[in-house]
Amino acid sequence: MTTRADVIFVDDDKDVRDTTIESLSLAGHEVTAFAKAERALERISRDFTGVIVSDIRMPGMDGIQFLEAIQEIDDALPVILVTGHGDVPLAVAAMQKGAFDFLEKPFSNQALRERVARALQFRKLRLENRDLRDTLEGTNDALDRLMVGSSELMQQARERIRMLAATDLDVLLTGETGTGKDLAARMLHDLSPRSGQPFVAINLAVLPEENIEHLLFGHEADAFPGASRARYGKLEHARGGTLYLDEVGSLSPALQTKLLRLVDTRRFERVGSNESIDLDARIITSTNRSLAALTEAGEFRSDLMYRFAVATVEMPPLRDHAEDVAVLFQHLLRTVAARHGVDQYRRPSADYLGTLAQREWPGNVRELRNLAELYFVGIEKPDDSEDSCQPRESLQARMEAAERDAIVDTLIRHRGNLKASYEELGVSRKTLYEKMIRHKLQRVDFTDEAE
Known about the structure:
The protein is an alpha/beta fold. It is built from 19 helices and twelve strands. The chain has helices at residues 14-26, 37-41, 63-73, 88-96, 109-136, 142-146, 152-165, 181-190, 209-217, 234-237, 253-265, 291-296, 302-308, 325-339, 350-356, 364-377, 395-413, 418-425, 429-438, and strands at residues 7-10, 31-34, 51-55, 79-83, 101-104, 171-174, 199-203, 242-246, 267-269, 276-278, 282-287, 311-314. The strands form three sheets. A five-stranded parallel β-sheet has the order 2-1-3-4-5, with helices on both faces. This is Response regulator. It comes from Aurantiacibacter rhizosphaerae. Pfam families: AAA_lid_14 (PF25601), HTH_8 (PF02954), Response_reg (PF00072), Sigma54_activat (PF00158). GO terms for molecular function: ATP binding; sequence-specific DNA binding.
């Protein structure tokens, strides 16, 4: 069973456990503490979102064995090991095996809190990357792969689309420009029993008023000047499938009346004909305006609004699910790269993705998609992208820094007394000399002579 805590702490010393729980709780963490690693292991799973802090020297399963057992569950779980005075080399060896960090006793509350905060951020990023990889590699169905986002709002939208797709109900899609209404309409069709039939989409906002009726209903020969022959309309092309009318809020009163009859009877006539034609098609509509507000203003028929809105799906603005921005941007970037037939491209850094989540995005997903295009071709060049920021420290560099800090702390504590220092560090006198030379440390800097 997985614990709900964000920190699991393991130490066989009850006083240390109590003190650590109090310190981390005051910093806002929820801590579960154990005296034995074996008991803690029962509460750790691949879904655990937190960090593990464990003493190294314990009866039964020790910290190193505990680390190895955790890595068998999930090698991306951050483990911070707590060492005694003579265990620094052991802790360094543990970092080589995959430990996230180590603390030397006695440690300050601040040092513990800082390491836990870094480890939690590391875990958060690893889980986000894992979710992205699962999404892009197709472990979920088509709706999950294409309508990306793990936020509650997006999960609700996907679930509603999935449920409505299995029906033949007419659906009204609402939401701001760029929120993904076109994709939602396509998913409603592709996941429906009509998926093998035509999907006919018409953007009513961009068509001249005089052409919409002919385009929708078709016309007979000589129905109007220039109509030399009969033409099928979009309604006939959609028979058996789905008709998607985008931006219905822009319909004129005359066309609203004609569409009301169409939705009511599922029959229509071509322009210039009195012969009725059956419409066997599902009707999906969308709008970025409030049809209720247009109805109150007398600009839209209320009876048509209710017929369009047999079922509705609200597509949320991007600012309301900002936690999805990072994953969505990487999804869009990969889509752009695939379209260009490119596997290797400039990856965004975690810092850059973090800044994207803080923007307002008035153009929503469409605006984010445009940014992904610019990023891919190199027009968008953030200072902290992975190919332009300073390289991250390697594991070896971090281990060297940790070793130097341990030596400095010990020399300060013993005021430059080398014998006391190498005994505490658990190394020979020669080894301490060599390490001091490598780290450019002078004994005199730690003695009273330095004053």
